[in-house]
Amino acid sequence: MADSNKNPGTADGCCSSSAIPKKSNNRDPPHYQKQARSSMDPQTYQLIEHVLVDQSLPAEARIAAPEKSLTLFNLQEYIDRTLDAVVIAEKAAEVSTTEGRLGCSEVLFENSGSARTLAVEPDRLGVSSLSNFSSIRANCCVYKGKWIYELMLGSKGVMQVGWCTINCQFFQENGVGDTIDSYAYDGNRLCKWNVKTQRYGESWLTGDVISCAIDCDKGTITFFRNGKCLGEAFNNVRCGPGYAYFPAVSLSMSENVRANFGAIPLRYPL
């Protein structure tokens, strides 16, 4: 997430993650795999299998656990996948020391609790909805200063994008802007959301870049479409002790967006 007080194009503690390679189909005949296993010392084989499937690894690393027994034919591939996953997990676990924000230093969408309703890309910056109305927030929140992030729209349907606190509970028909202390813009229905809805903004199109800005000192939220200010959307945002806001989006079926939290220069810096 970018600090809007910084110079244009400055990234804030983020870097791109490497995607975990997909496992290739093993076309070696079964008798070759059996020979490879039998050629390995039994104790060595057990040690390798125990260490590489260690349950103390982070959840992101454990997803690379083998679906079948390791052999000399698939061992290197599995090691590479596991190490890539560990690197991603370690980066995501690093804590930010930037003033005014809390959470991981590398800002990404959360990857827990959304597998059934959202498709999250391996770098955790792109999301697509798999249900009628799916919501997700980032792994970092802000409580002081001015902040902004961008969303590249992969579609132009019903979406509510903006900011919410940890108390914003997501349900099938309840997303960003539908509860107290959550605020959203919907360019399909031309409205802004904070429990109640009011007319706001412009119609958005696929490929648009929507900037979501919050000023935690003044208690305001403003949205931009391709760099054009749509006007101050909210000026009664509760800030101060006990309040911190996460970037968050809610998407209707098949709608999708890709976020820039500051890992690369903003397309439309303020």
UniProtKB/TrEMBL annotation:
This is B30.2/SPRY domain-containing protein. It comes from Octopus bimaculoides (California two-spotted octopus). GO terms for biological process: proteolysis involved in protein catabolic process. Keywords: Metal-binding, Zinc, Zinc-finger. Residues 1-40 are annotated as: Disordered. PROSITE patterns: B302_SPRY (PS50188). One of its GO terms (molecular function) is zinc ion binding. It holds the Pfam family SPRY. GO terms for cellular component: cytoplasm. Residues 87-266 form the B30.2/SPRY domain. The keyword Nucleotide-binding does not apply. The keyword Zinc applies.
